[in-house]
Structure formats: C-alpha cells, structure tokens
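Repro:
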Amino acid sequence: QTYMKPFDETKLTSFLLLTYADLKNHKVLYWFSMPALLPNDSIRAKRQISLHESMTAKQVQTLQTAVEMFRLESSTCCPPYFLYIKNKCFPLSSYNDVKDDENIIFGFFDPSTTSATSSEEMLPMGWPMRNLIAHLSIHFHLGGKTVSILSYRPKFLRAGAHDDDNNSLLLQVVVPRHYNPEKVVGWELNARGKPGPRWVNLRPLLDPHHLAVQAADLNLKLMKWRMIPSLNVEKLQSTKVLIIGAGTLGCSVAQILLGWGIRHVKFVDNGKVSYSNPVRQSLFTLNDCQNGGVPKATAAAEALKNIAADVQSEGIVLS
C-alpha cells in the first residue's frame, strides 16, 4: 500500500550501498544493490529496433534536441525518465494529462553498454527499465497493454551536440499485469559470480610500507629503462649476499647493494659499535654506542631495515 502512493519517479533508480572499512589493513568491503521489481509473468517484447532504423535522421535529431532541452529545463541535472510526444518531452509524472494520446513514447536514460541491434530476442534489461515497466503497470494501470519504450543511450550529454552514432533502441513491450512487491532482485555478484560483497585493496595507495617498496622498485625499473636494458631486476631481488665484516667498507657496500635491488643481506662480525664508528660507518648512530655498544652485525642488519622496507637482513655475532 505504501508503494501505491504517489512518489518521485527518481526513486525508481535508487540504489543501496553497504560498506565496511578495514582501516588496519587498508581494505574496503562494499556491496551494491540496484533493486528491481520482478513481475509474476515474464516481460515480453514484441519488437526491438535501433533508433536510426525506426526514425529518419531529421526525426532523430529532433528527438535529441527535445531530450536535451528537457534535461536542461529540469530541476534535476538528468531526470531518469521522460515522455516523448509530438516532438516534445514531458515529465513522466504528467502521464495522466496526456494519456489519451496514442503516440506516447516512454523514455529513459539507459546506462547499458550493449550494442543497439534489431532482434526478435529482447536484450537483457537493466534495473531502470525493469522499474519503469513496473511503474507503468502499478501506477498507470497499463498491465496487459503494449507500450513504446525508448532506451536512450547517448554517448555524451552536452548542449547543442548531436550524437550521430547513437545506440538507442525503440521497443514495443507488453506490460505485465501483476507484480509482487516482495519479489525483488538487484544485489551485485562478486568475483565468483555469486551474490556477495567485493573487496577493494587500497594498500598500494595508503600503506606506507607498500609505498616505500613501490618507490624503491621504481628506481630499479627506471635504471633498466634508461641505462641498462639487460638488467635483471628479479634476479637481483632474489640474490642472497653474505658480508664478512660490518665496518666502514661493509656498511658502504651493503647500502650500495640496496640501491641495486639486493634484498637479502647477512652480516658476520665480532665487534661492537664504538663512539668513533658513526662518523665513518654510515649504518651506525650514537645510540648504537651506548652501554658498551651494540654488536655491529646486529646494528647493521637493523639499520638496513630502516632504509629499505622489504629487505630481509640478519646479523651473526661471532664469539
């Protein structure tokens, strides 16, 4: 009974969106629903023909001009439905004022991307058309009658422009008599083709660790592209390096290897960081010198992890 009351036709194109943001893992779960009422009987199309085959080029241009004027004069930016009568467009809500005219065409902006072809078989209907037909049956009491429906598919919406390659369709549809308000479809299918939500992974855009890895990889790809086309980046990233001694030379070599894409480094050393080391050995800081000094191998391995986000480094302290 609530559905039978007058309402804004734009609600026929309403959609639902359920979302859940996993902020910790930088992922967003979403599930779209475009509710569409289903009739008790199937919707039948008597005829389906492209707009250019059903009208002359001048008539098509007149229709496009009328639709564009209707869109510009409407209170909404793009009303989803309209009536086309005698080269003019009217709001769908004005049907009762013009219902005696036999040349009424019920039009709607169709977001479908299927090609316009003349066929005896009806193309799959989107939710705007399904709900338009339900509206004609329930509110306008056109159940059992054949109506003309224009699936309007302009490539662009711009004042003064005419689309010569318009994919619009003109259909003759038999409106079903009965609808069950509880019989509704429209939930989007997931990647497995079943009703369910989808995930969007935003880690490449938001996660600092991931951004750091991407930036380092980009440096190597630019080197390969500009200077060394034969550079095998994947082989470098999988190469394992053992550095004997974490002194001045060992620290410098390790940092240079990171720049060339080496991501597996192991240090072997028996010394500890002293206050004279940080000025010469780039991987150490004054904090590593306190309380007798941190083992050089361990400190160097930890320092590499602060430079390259995806490095796997280890320090082995010889006794």
